C-alpha cells in the first residue's frame, strides 16, 4: 500500500515557504503541530469510536501521565476537535467526545493511521538498514 512516487501530486494550497508569506501564520504548521503530538493522535483515535471519561482514556493510553493527558485534552478542546461535558454527580464526572470538526479531521487522519499500521515493519526495517550503514 505504498504510494506511487511517479504519480503527480496536486499542490495543496499556498506553500508556507512562499516569499512574502508569514511562516508564523502557516496553516500547515499551525494545525499539524498540534495533531502530530505524541498523544493527540492516540486520543483522537479513541474518541473517534465513542465518548470516554478521563479515567478510561488514561487506561487506554497507560504510558501517558495524568498531567500530559489533561494538557492534551485541553489543547484538543481549544482547537475545537473535542468537547468536554461535566456531569453533576458527586464527585463530578467528565466525558470527552469528538466534535464535527474533530470527525472531519479524523477522516483523513485515519488513512495515515492505517498507512502506519500497514507499513510499520517496512519503516522499522528501513531505519535498521540506515542505522547499520551509519555504523559501517
UniProtKB/TrEMBL annotation:
<keyword id="KW-0805">Transcription regulation</keyword>
<feature type="region of interest" description="Disordered">
    <location>
        <begin position="1"/>
        <end position="23"/>
    </location>
</feature>
<dbReference type="Pfam" id="PF01638">
    <property type="entry name" value="HxlR"/>
</dbReference>
<dbReference type="InterPro" id="IPR036388">
    <property type="entry name" value="WH-like_DNA-bd_sf"/>
</dbReference>
<feature type="domain" description="HTH hxlR-type">
    <location>
        <begin position="26"/>
        <end position="124"/>
    </location>
</feature>
<keyword id="KW-0238">DNA-binding</keyword>
<dbReference type="GO" id="GO:0003677">
    <property type="term" value="F:DNA binding"/>
</dbReference>
<dbReference type="InterPro" id="IPR036390">
    <property type="entry name" value="WH_DNA-bd_sf"/>
</dbReference>
<protein>
    <submittedName>
        <fullName>Transcriptional regulator</fullName>
    </submittedName>
</protein>
<keyword id="KW-0804">Transcription</keyword>
<dbReference type="InterPro" id="IPR002577">
    <property type="entry name" value="HTH_HxlR"/>
</dbReference>
Amino acid at each position: 500500500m505504498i504510494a506511487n512516487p511517479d504519480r503527480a501530486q496536486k499542490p495543496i494550497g499556498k506553500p508556507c515557504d512562499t516569499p512574502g508569506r508569514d511562516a508564523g501564520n502557516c496553516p500547515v504548521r499551525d494545525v499539524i503541530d498540534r495533531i502530530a503530538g505524541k498523544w493527540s493522535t492516540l486520543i483522537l483515535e479513541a474518541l473517534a469510536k465513542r465518548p470516554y471519561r478521563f479515567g478510561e482514556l488514561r487506561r487506554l493510553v497507560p504510558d501517558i501521565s495524568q498531567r500530559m493527558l489533561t494538557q492534551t485534552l485541553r489543547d484538543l478542546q481549544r482547537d475545537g476537535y473535542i468537547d468536554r461535558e461535566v456531569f453533576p454527580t458527586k464527585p463530578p464526572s467528565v466525558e470527552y467526545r469528538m466534535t464535527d470538526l474533530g470527525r472531519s479531521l479524523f477522516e483523513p487522519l485515519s488513512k495515515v493511521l492505517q498507512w502506519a499500521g500497514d507499513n510499520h515493519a517496512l519503516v522499522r526495517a528501513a531505519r535498521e538498514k540506515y542505522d547499520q550503514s551509519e555504523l559501517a
